[in-house]
Design goal:
- With 636 residues, the chain is of the alpha+beta class.
- It is built from 23 helices and 19 strands.
- Strands 1, 2, 3, 4, 5 and 6 form a 6-stranded antiparallel sheet that branches. Strands 7, 8, 9, 10, 11 and 12 form a 6-stranded antiparallel sheet that branches.
- Strand 7 and strand 8 form a beta hairpin.
C-alpha cells in the first residue's frame, strides 16, 4: 500500500452508525439561530450621502436580505447533520419550513421600514435614490442577484404598480454575477494524472467530510469505476487538461445526499453524480453513478422537491450546473436549489424577453376544460398559465384552492407533482391574447382582470411546465406507449401515496406526460393528506333495489373513498384496463390504501429514487455489493 493510499484510507471514517450523535440542536428555532445582522457598512464614496434617508433605507433593506440568506445557509447546514444522524423526519421539516423563509423575511423588512420611515409619503426621487445606493452596497456582495430580487419584493409591497420599472426596481439586473465565486472556490479540483480512478474518487469521498462510517467504500468505488467505463475505465484517454471538479456542498433531499461533479477532459465536459444513502445500521453507501445527461437532469426535474445546499455564492453553483445541463434554464436551477423567488424573477425576465422576440398569440390550452381552473399557453413557450375561475363547477372556495396549491408547494412532491410559480398582477399585451382566450378570460374570471387598454392585467396566476395531458396522450399512443404511460400513471399515484398525498380527482386529464415520458400530476384543487381519508369497501347490497339504485344507498362521509369504484370511471377502455390490472390491480383494493396509511402513521418513509431503479447497484440483504454488481452489472 502506498503512503498516499494509506493516508486516504486513514481519512475515511470507520464503518460505524451515527444515529445517536447530537451534532446539532434538532428542534432549534430559526429565529434564535442567528442574531439580527447589523446594517451593512456605508458604500464607498459616491454621489449619494451615506447618512441620507435613501442610504439608510437601502442599508436596512439589505440587512433584511442578509438575515434571510444566513438562515437559508443555516438550514442547509442542518440538513447535513440530519443526513449524518438519519433524522429523516427532521430533514423533511427543514425542507418545508425553508419554503416560508423568504416571505417571513420580506414581511419583517416591510414592517421594519414602515415602522422606522414614513414609506407611504416618500418622494419619487427618494425611492430612485434608494435603488442607486442599494446598487453601491452590492459591490463585493456574494449574492447580489438574490439581494436584487429581495429589494424588488420588498419595494413592490410598498409601492404602487406604476413604479414597477427599472428606475425604482431591478427589472434588469444591475450587478453581474459572471466570474463571481467564493474563496475557496465553489468546487474542488482534482488532477488525476496517472493515478487510478478509484484512488482519485476515494480522495473525493474523504473530502466530503461526512461524520458517518461507510458500509464498504472500496467495493462501492470499484463498482462506480466498473459501471462508468467511459469515464473511469483504466484505458480511458486522459488529455493534458484532465481534471475532476466536485461542488463543495452535497445536495441533500429526503433520505439522500448527492455528490455533483464533472470531468474536464480534452476540452469536453462530462457530468457525473453519486447518490449517497444510509443503510439500516447507519452506514453510508454509494447507490449508483449517474453519468448520462438525462439522468443528471432527472435529479433537477420540476416535479421533485428542492435540494438543500450550503452555498456561499449561489450563482457559481448555477454556473457549474449549467455546464452539466446546458438546456436547463437558470430559473429552474435556482428554483431547484431552493431559491424559488430568484427562479420566479429569472422566469419573468425570460418571459418578457421571449415576448419581445416572438409574435404568436396566447391561446386556450388544449385538453378538457377544468371545472375550477382555466389554462392558457403560448405555443412557442413551454409553459402553461393557470387561473382560478370566478364561477366554479365544484363547491370549493378560491381560498381553499390556493391553500391546496400551497400545500403541494410546501410538501415533498415525490417526483410526481409539478412545481408551480405563483404570480400576482401579471401584465399581458392585449394584442397577444387570441380573441377566443380574451373572451374566455372575460367570461370565466372577470374579477381577476384589469383592462389598461393595450394591456390586460391578471391579478393571480400559477405558471407550470407544459405537458401533454395524459388523456390526449393515450388517445394516440401505440400499444407499447400506452402500456408504459398506464404503468407510469400507477407509479405516480404510488409515489404520491408514499409522500402522504391523495390526489383526489384521479382522472387522466389531471395528469401530464413529460418530455421524458414520465407521468406527473398537476391538478391540486382536491389534494388531501392520505391519512385524512377513510378508505372503505363498498357494502354488499341488502336488496335488489339497493343494487339498482343510481345513488349510494349507504351513508358516505366527505372523506370516504371507495377504491373499488376507480375501476368504473378509470378502466372503461379495455386497452387501458389491461395494463393497469397488470401493474397496479392492488390500487383497487381498500386494504392496500389502509396499509399505506398505517405505514405513514408508523413513521415509515419510503425511498423514492430520482433515477431508474435498474441503475442501482445490486446488493444482498445485508447491503453488500453482489457478485453480479461487482463485475459491472446494474440492478434491474
Amino acid at each position: 500500500m502506498t503512503s498516499m493510499t494509506r493516508t486516504m484510507h486513514q481519512g475515511l471514517p470507520a464503518a460505524r452508525a451515527c444515529h445517536g450523535r447530537a451534532a446539532f440542536k434538532m428542534e432549534g428555532m430559526y429565529e434564535d439561530a442567528l442574531p439580527h445582522p447589523p446594517l451593512p457598512p456605508a458604500a464607498p464614496p459616491g454621489t449619494l450621502d451615506a447618512d441620507s434617508l435613501p442610504a439608510t433605507l437601502a442599508r436596512t433593506m439589505l440587512a433584511g436580505f442578509n438575515r434571510h440568506y444566513a438562515l437559508f445557509r443555516y438550514n442547509a447546514q442542518q440538513a447535513k447533520a440530519c443526513f449524518e444522524n438519519a433524522a429523516w423526519h427532521t430533514m423533511r421539516r427543514l425542507a418545508s419550513e425553508r419554503i416560508t423563509f423568504y416571505d417571513q423575511r420580506v414581511r419583517e423588512a416591510v414592517e421594519n421600514l414602515r415602522s422606522q420611515f414614513d414609506t407611504d409619503n416618500l418622494a419619487d426621487d427618494t425611492w430612485a435614490e434608494v435603488k442607486q445606493y442599494y446598487v453601491l452596497l452590492l459591490a463585493g456582495h456574494q449574492q447580489p442577484e438574490l439581494a436584487e430580487s429581495f429589494f424588488n419584493t420588498v419595494s413592490t409591497r410598498l409601492l404602487h404598480r406604476q413604479y414597477f420599472h427599472n428606475d425604482f426596481i431591478f427589472v434588469r439586473p444591475a450587478v453581474s454575477t459572471e466570474h463571481l465565486d467564493a474563496t475557496p472556490p465553489s468546487f474542488r479540483v482534482y488532477y488525476p494524472g496517472t493515478s487510478p480512478w478509484k484512488q482519485v474518487l476515494r480522495q473525493v469521498i474523504i473530502d466530503l467530510g461526512l461524520a458517518c462510517g461507510y458500509q464498504d467504500i472500496e467495493s462501492d468505488l470499484q463498482q462506480v469505476v466498473n459501471a462508468a467505463p467511459g469515464l473511469f475505465g483504466p484505458d480511458t484517454y486522459r488529455g493534458m487538461d484532465c481534471q475532476v471538479h466536485v461542488l463543495r456542498s452535497l445536495f441533500f433531499r429526503n433520505k439522500g445526499a448527492y455528490l455533483i461533479g464533472r470531468i474536464i477532459n480534452d476540452g469536453e465536459v462530462q457530468p457525473f453524480a453519486l447518490p449517497l444513502l444510509r443503510d439500516s445500521r447507519g452506514h453510508v453507501f454509494i447507490d449508483t453513478v449517474l453519468h448520462q445527461h438525462d439522468h443528471i437532469e432527472g435529479l433537477f426535474n420540476f416535479s421533485r422537491a428542492y435540494f438543500m445546499v450550503d452555498m456561499a455564492v449561489p450563482s457559481a453553483y448555477v454556473r457549474f450546473l449549467r455546464t452539466l445541463m446546458p438546456t436547463k434554464p437558470e430559473s429552474e436551477l435556482y428554483t431547484m436549489l431552493g431559491l424559488h423567488k430568484q427562479g420566479k424573477t429569472l422566469f419573468f425576465r425570460d418571459l418578457l424577453q421571449h415576448l419581445h422576440e416572438s409574435t404568436d398569440a396566447f391561446i386556450i390550452a388544449p385538453g378538457i376544460k377544468g371545472l375550477v381552473m382555466g389554462v392558457f399557453t403560448l405555443p412557442s413557450f413551454p409553459f402553461v398559465f393557470k387561473y382560478i375561475k370566478d364561477v366554479r363547477r365544484k363547491d370549493i372556495t378560491r381560498e381553499y384552492i390556493e391553500d391546496r396549491y400551497q400545500l403541494v408547494k410546501n410538501h415533498d412532491r415525490a417526483g410526481r407533482m409539478a412545481d408551480s410559480w405563483e404570480y400576482s398582477d401579471v401584465p399581458f399585451p392585449r394584442n397577444r391574447l387570441s380573441p377566443e382566450l380574451l373572451a374566455e378570460l372575460q367570461q370565466t374570471a372577470p374579477s381577476l382582470l384589469t383592462d389598461e387598454g393595450d394591456r390586460i392585467i391578471i391579478r393571480h396566476l400559477y405558471i407550470e411546465r407544459r405537458m401533454t395531458p395524459l388523456n390526449l396522450y393515450l388517445e394516440t399512443a401505440s400499444e407499447a406507449e400506452r402500456e408504459h404511460a398506464v404503468n407510469q400513471y400507477g407509479m405516480a399515484i404510488r409515489n404520491m401515496v408514499s409522500a402522504n398525498i391523495f390526489p383526489g380527482d384521479m382522472l387522466y386529464k389531471n395528469f401530464g406526460v413529460t418530455r421524458q415520458n414520465r407521468v406527473v400530476f398537476y391538478d391540486y384543487d382536491e389534494v388531501v393528506y392520505l391519512t385524512e381519508c377513510n378508505f372503505r369497501k363498498v357494502p354488499e347490497p341488502r336488496t335488489p333495489e339497493d343494487e339498482m339504485a343510481s345513488e349510494p344507498w349507504y351513508p358516505v362521509a366527505p372523506n370516504d373513498v371507495f377504491p373499488e369504484e376507480f375501476e368504473t370511471f378509470l378502466l372503461g377502455n379495455p386497452r387501458i384496463r389491461k395494463p393497469f390490472l397488470k401493474y397496479h390491480a392492488e390500487l383497487l383494493d381498500p386494504a392496500w390504501w389502509q396499509n399505506q396509511q398505517k405505514r405513514i402513521e408508523a413513521g415509515i418513509l419510503d425511498d423514492i429514487f430520482a433515477y431508474p431503479r435498474r441503475l442501482r447497484f445490486a446488493r444482498d440483504d445485508n447491503g453488500a455489493i453482489t457478485p453480479a454488481a461487482a463485475t459491472g452489472s446494474l440492478a434491474g
